[in-house]
Amino acid sequence: MILGVDLASEVPLYQQLRDRVVEAIASGILPAGSSLPTTRQLASDFGINFHTVNKAYDLLRQQGLLRLTRKTGATVLRDAHTGPPPPDFLSGWRSRARTLLAEAVAHGVSEAELLETCESVLATFRAESEDPA
Amino acid sequence: MSTGLLVIYAASIALIGVIAVLLPNFSRPTLAFGVRIPPEQVDSEFVTEQRRWYQRWVLAGCAALLAVQLPLALAVPEFVQYGLSTLPVVVVAGAVYYRAHSRIRAAKRQQGWYDSARQGIAVDTSLRSDPERFPWLWVLPAIVVLAITAVIGILRYPSMPDILVLHWSGSGEPDRTAPKSPGSAFVLVFVQAGLTAFLVVLTRLCFGAKPELDPARPRGSARQHRRFSTRTAKAMLVLTAASGFTMLGAALMVWWNSFSVPLLLLSLLPVAIGVVGLLVLSVRTGQGGSKLEQEADVAENTGYVEQDDDRFWLAAGLFYVNRDDPAVFVQKRVGFGWTVNLANPKAWLLFVGLIGIAVLPALLLP
User: Fold this and answer.
1) How far apart are CA B84 and CA B209, in angstroms?
2) Confidence of residue B82 (pLDDT cuts 50, 70, 90)
3) The dihedral sign for the CA sequence B1, B3, B5, B6
4) Does A131 touch chain B (CB under 8 A)?
5) How many domains does chain B contain in total?
6) CATH 1.10.10.10 segments of chain A
7) Is residue B315 part of a domain?
8) Residue B347 covered by a domain
């Protein structure tokens, strides 16, 4: 899996790393049970601070997506096929989705356009899971 | 001064000269004389002109030095210090290099080459989860050469002279001797064993060193990295065996108490061939595999460029100092191969190991 970060972005590096891993899980590139390098290894490959990677991995662990082990690094705990989300997940996610949708609406994005975006994003997840290159 | 020694003298100067002239050919295209440049500058008129200028002046300097140093060595053989013979050419090439480095750095700053660049870093986790296998089989030649040295030494030991000559001066006169004992007779075998072990460990560490991918085409450059790391590991292991062969030659001269220039040349031959082979390999492979052919089906461009990381490189790109980076080994900016992150204490441990091997003979001798 290719993990890329944008150094000019306003999004902090740890958040970018966390986001890329979540997207990779959603698209089936990282199915449940697959492993990620250790914190130190990934930090070294990026040439960034150990704590940055640690923070990203820790967020993913808190969200129930990763299990961290000292020796082998990190293992993906769940994916789309693992089953329904944990009970407390949806309420938090809905409120974040609400904010995200509000941003688009406030900027004048039409409802049709908004729904279309959702459709096409979901389609890219499906497409990549069918062809995990 | 014998012809054989003069050949070694001239060849070492010429070799350093050739390496210096080829230097711009094995670094990454986006590193010009230790300065990170964006892709659109790689073949720009200005950068190309700096490369041409550098190669012209290094070539001229090297030719001038040979023309001065060789007659001097013939006239005053006492002057010849092998360790210092290549120093002038290194100084000249370094000065020319620094001039090109400064010009490019100044242009980069004045013209704001990175003002509109989208800088990124890309990592391929499959290089870790599904890594290339280390070519352990290629360690075998070095072990065989070591075993041959040890066996010859053991067989020869009873008939070795009572006083062993351990070193000869440049003119072939013995200048260091020691009474025969297992310590003095086998010192070179121990050094060879230590050197072999050190080089194999070093090769293994460099083999696993961080891949530096081009964020514009992460997949293609990850493939290049795989071929680069395997190739260079094999080349380093071949050179390890070749250096063992040189040690074998030196041991034979001590054990038979006969300094022989042809034997010296013969024992240096594999290393010489190895070094020339490594030069060809580095020009054709390029640092990180950057010169390796891209597969035709890969047409990726993410729009990112490699980050401007000049701030982590000191002394015109010679030394890497990055406190944030946990890596010990990183690819060199100047030349082919690896260097260490001087901000990492583990890198300093490595120097201690190197010094250990250098002083090992002195400790072992009675």
Assistant:
1) 32
2) low
3) positive
4) no
5) 2
6) 13-76
7) no
8) no
Write the CB contacts of A15 (distance below 8 Å, at least 6 apart in sequence). Answer: A56, A59
- Answer whether B41's CB lies under 8 Å from B305's CB: no
Which one of A45, A46, A52, A72 makes the best mutation probe of the B interface by having the most chain B beta carbons within 10 Å?
A45
Do B170 and B71 fall within a single domain? no
Q: Does A48 touch chain B (CB under 8 A)?
A: yes
Q: Which residues of A touch B122 (CB under 8 A)?
A: 2-5
Domain boundary among B85, B114, B143: B114
Looking at the fold, whether B65 and B170 belong to one and the same domain comes out as no
Sort out which chain A residues have CB atoms less than 8 A from B124's CB and list them: 1-3
Domain that holds residue B190: 133-295
Report residue B344 as tokens. Answer: 């990492």
More confident residue, A95 or B81: A95
Mean pLDDT of B305-330: 95
- Pairwise CB contact (< 8 Å): B215 & A4: yes
The answer on B143 and B29 residing in a single domain is: no
Instruction: Note whether B182 and B219 are same-domain residues.
Output: yes
Measured in whole angstroms, the distance separating CA B55 from the mean position of its chain's CA atoms is: 20
Which alpha helices (H) appear in chain B, and where do they start and end? 3-26, 45-75, 87-111, 126-129, 140-156, 182-207, 218-255, 261-285, 345-364
Could you read off the pLDDT of B25-68 as tens digits, one per residue?
888 999 999 999 999 999 999 999 999 999 999 999 999 999 99
- Yes or no, beta carbons of B302 and A4 under 8 Å apart: yes
Whether CATH 1.10.10.10 fits A13-76: yes
pLDDT at residue B294, as a whole number? 78
DSSP state at residue B311: G
DSSP structure string for A51-71: HHHHHHHHHHHHTTSEEEETT
Burial of A8 (0-12, 13-18, 19+ CB in 10 A): exposed
**B145 & B279 share domain:** yes
Show which of B247, B276, B295 is a domain's final residue: B295
Please give the structure tokens belonging to residue A108.
Answer: 């004048």
Burial of B114: CB neighbours in 10 Å, binned 0-12, 13-18, 19+: middle
SS3 B52: helix
Residue type, position B102, single letter = S
Residues B159 and B108 in one domain: no
Per cent of chain B over pLDDT 70 is: 95
Task: Please indicate if any CB of chain A lies within 8 Å of the CB of B159.
Answer: no
Q: What is each CA distance from A76 to A3, A60, A79, B312, in whole angstroms?
A: 15, 9, 8, 34
